[in-house]
């Protein structure tokens, strides 16, 4: 049976593809705080503003390509059962060739019904407009977990991490909860690698190797190392 590698990826990984991180510019977008364009309250107060924010993010995503780290992770599937749990809402892991991706915070290229959360659709193009409705007649919204909303996939993510033989944490500050707590579900004896330029040591995790480097540089090297094990 193949060993399982679980990858937890964050914004730093997408940033290397040229995708602006969620809190670029001190958390401001067009002089609006992120919370003012990414919360249920924001949607209720100014739907058009929220739609424009996500339309611009989708437009930028269309102009970005997977980087060397995304492509390298896909190579691990030759030898391992690879499960990716990502905090990112882009599709760069998918386009990089990985097969098993769980999105914790939603997906930028998908939209969902405002009356039935189970109605989720792929968005054609990059624009979602006021008046775009689901089959039940309600306005469609971004398929994104906003500030103040629960993270539906967190339980499933914890179950995946519990089965890890090797855990890679890439491009995340490990400060955003509940995602940051996932690494603590990994088995005590599992190998753990933390790749980020600002990565810090942990006194609560065993078998942790910290690699202070960018994902695009460090991940391909680590992948080659793991494939040769």
Describe the structure in your own words.
29% of the residues lie in helices and 21% in strands. The chain is built from eight helices and eleven strands. It is of the alpha/beta class and 229 residues long. The two termini are 15 Å apart. It folds into two domains: 1-19 and 65-105 and 150-229, Rossmann fold, CATH 3.40.50; 20-63 and 110-144, SIR2/SIRT2 'Small Domain', CATH 3.30.1600. The mean pLDDT is 92. The chain has helices at 11-15, 24-27, 40-45, 47-62, 68-75, 92-96, 154-162, 215-227; strands at residues 4-9, 28-29, 32-33, 81-86, 101-103, 106-113, 120-122, 140-144, 166-170, 191-195, 208-211.
Short description:
With 229 residues, the chain is of the alpha/beta class.
Task: Name a few traits of the molecule.
single chain; 229 residues; alpha/beta; Rossmann fold; SIR2/SIRT2 'Small Domain'; 2 domains; three-stranded antiparallel β-sheet; 8 helices
Outline the secondary-structure elements.
Elements: E1 4-9, H1 11-15, H2 24-27, E2 28-29, E3 32-33, H3 40-45, H4 47-62, H5 68-75, E4 81-86, H6 92-96, E5 101-103, E6 106-113, E7 120-122, E8 140-144, H7 154-162, E9 166-170, E10 191-195, E11 208-211, H8 215-227
Parallel strand pairs: 1-4, 1-9, 4-5, 9-10, 10-11
Antiparallel strand pairs: 2-3, 6-7, 6-8
Helix pairs in contact: 5-8
Q: How many domains?
A: 2
CATH architecture title of the largest domain = 3-Layer(aba) Sandwich
Give me the strand/helix succession.
EHHEEHHHEHEEEEHEEEH
CA-CA gap between termini: 15 Å
- Please estimate the helix content: 25-40%
Number of strands: 11
Kindly state the mean pLDDT as a whole number? Answer: 92
| Order of adjacent strands in the largest pleated sheet | 5-4-1-9-10-11
Let me know the largest β-sheet: 6 strands, parallel
Shape: elongated
Going by CATH, what is the homologous superfamily of the largest domain?
TPP-binding domain
Nearest-angstrom radius of gyration? 18 Å
Q: Give me the secondary-structure category.
A: alpha/beta
Low confidence ranges? none
């Amino acid at each position: 049976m193949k060993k399982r590698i679980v990858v937890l990826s964050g914004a730093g990984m997408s940033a290397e593809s040229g995708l602006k991180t969620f809190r670029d510019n001190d958390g401001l977008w067009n002089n609006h705080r992120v919370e003012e364009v990414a919360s249920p309250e924001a949607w209720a107060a100014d739907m058009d503003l929220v739609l424009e924010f996500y339309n611009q993010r989708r437009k930028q995503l269309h102009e970005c390509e997977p980087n060397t780290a995304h492509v390298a992770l896909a190579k691990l599937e030759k030898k391992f059962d690879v499960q990716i749990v990502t905090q990112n809402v882009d599709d760069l892991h998918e386009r990089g060739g990985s097969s098993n991706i769980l999105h914790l915070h939603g997906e930028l290229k998908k939209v969902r019904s405002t009356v039935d959360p189970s109605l989720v659709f792929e968005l054609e193009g990059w624009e979602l407009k006021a008046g775009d409705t689901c089959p039940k007649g309600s306005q469609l919204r971004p398929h994104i977990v906003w500030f103040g909303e629960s993270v539906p996939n967190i339980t499933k993510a914890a179950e995946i991490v519990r089965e890890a033989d090797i855990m890679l944490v890439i491009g995340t500050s490990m400060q955003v909860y509940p995602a940051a707590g996932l690494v603590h579900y990994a088995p005590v004896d599992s190998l753990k690698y933390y790749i980020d330029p600002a990565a810090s040591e942990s006194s609560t995790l065993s078998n942790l190797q910290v690699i202070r480097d960018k994902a695009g540089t460090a991940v391909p090297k680590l992948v080659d190392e793991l494939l040769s094990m």
